[in-house]
């Protein structure tokens, strides 16, 4: 898996102060997407063990009270990203006590594969649905268009 950006301190992508990872790869390619540079699976940098360790360390750093991890992109549930995202989510659950996990995807909850659903079973909040330019609404919290749904799964 590749990633484009990692913010160890972020207050925009989910509730509270968070670590946010923007992964590469999206097959939805929504018209009007603000993050088109993340569409290619081969763009960005390789998300390796060192980067995974950094995310875990940042989540556990007590100097900043972080609420959790946000995964966006691109699309964290792109089939090519599933293995790496699952490994990261499992580590967060095992090593980062009390941290929640938010994930944004263009896929819809009702249509996920078994592998994608395994990830979703371990996260707290899923924001699903493709960005629809005609339904764009900048006043909506945590989503770009009114068709997207916030699923609070473990909260």
The total count of strands amounts to: 7
Helix content: 10-25%
Shape: globular
Name given to the CATH homologous superfamily: Aldolase class I
Beta-strand residue percentage: 15-25%
Radius of gyration: 14 Å
Integer count of domains: 1
Structure write-up:
There is one protein chain. The chain is an alpha/beta fold and 155 residues long. Helices cover 21% and strands 23% of the residues. The protein has helices at residues 49-60, 82-95, 114-120, and strands at 2-10, 18-23, 45-46, 68-73, 100-104, 125-128, 149-152. The chain has a 7-stranded mixed β-sheet, covered by helices on one side. Strand 4 (68-73), helix 2 (82-95) and strand 5 (100-104) form a beta-alpha-beta unit.
Q: What are the defining features of this structure?
A:
single chain, 155 residues, alpha/beta, 3 helices, 7 strands
Offer a concise description of the structure.
The protein is α/β, with parallel strands linked by helices and 155 residues long. The chain has helices spanning 49-60, 82-95, 114-120; strands at residues 2-10, 18-23, 45-46, 68-73, 100-104, 125-128, 149-152.
């Amino acid at each position: 898996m590749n990633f484009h950006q990692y913010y160890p301190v972020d207050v925009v992508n989910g509730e509270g102060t968070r670590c946010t990872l923007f992964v590469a790869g999206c097959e939805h390619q929504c018209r009007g997407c603000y993050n088109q540079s993340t569409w290619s699976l081969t763009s960005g940098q390789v998300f390796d063990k060192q980067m995974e360790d950094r995310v875990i360390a940042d989540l556990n750093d007590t100097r900043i009270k972080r609420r959790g991890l946000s995964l966006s992109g691109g699309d964290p549930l792109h089939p090519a990203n599933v293995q790496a995202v699952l490994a990261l989510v499992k580590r967060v659950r095992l090593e980062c006590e009390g941290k929640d996990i938010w994930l944004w995807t263009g896929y819809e909850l009702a249509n996920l594969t078994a592998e994608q659903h395994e990830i979703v079973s371990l996260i707290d909040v899923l924001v699903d649905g493709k960005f629809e330019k005609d339904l764009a609404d900048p006043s909506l919290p945590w989503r770009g268009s009114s068709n997207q749904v916030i699923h609070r799964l473990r909260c």
